[in-house]
Amino acid sequence: MRLLLRFLVIYLFFMFQYAVVKLPLEILLLVIVILSLYDEPYYALINAFWAGTLLDLAAPLYLGFHVVFFVLVAYSLSNIRRALYNNRIYFLVIVALALITKYLLGLLILKTNIRFVSWLVSFIILLSIAIPLDFLIIRIILRKWPSVPKESLY
Description:
This protein is mainly α. 75% of the residues lie in helices and 0% in strands.
């Protein structure tokens, strides 16, 4: 059930990315970064594989690129999360590094023709929605609410 809920969330963000947004936003990459920082490595790798498969099936010209990239991001983040992830600044730096790496790999390996200005706009939009989306996924999907100590009745 835990894995099915994450698959549904990834699929909903995939549909949002391709049906609603016309900019080249990498919302699924942001979701994979968030899930990799909080989930166990096994679940992070399965989620990354699912998200990469969805993106690869949507753009079959680059078949396999998204799967490999997402799985590498999930594996590296799930292994270094305890040593690196402390606050929101690190989270924004991790998201920025993942986005820059994907953009550069797309330019160098795949020879994509994404304009820098449109990529920069999507980069700024993703960094601005990263923290609210992080709160949404932590609170609702992972059900990690801050615990409030109960007051004593005596």
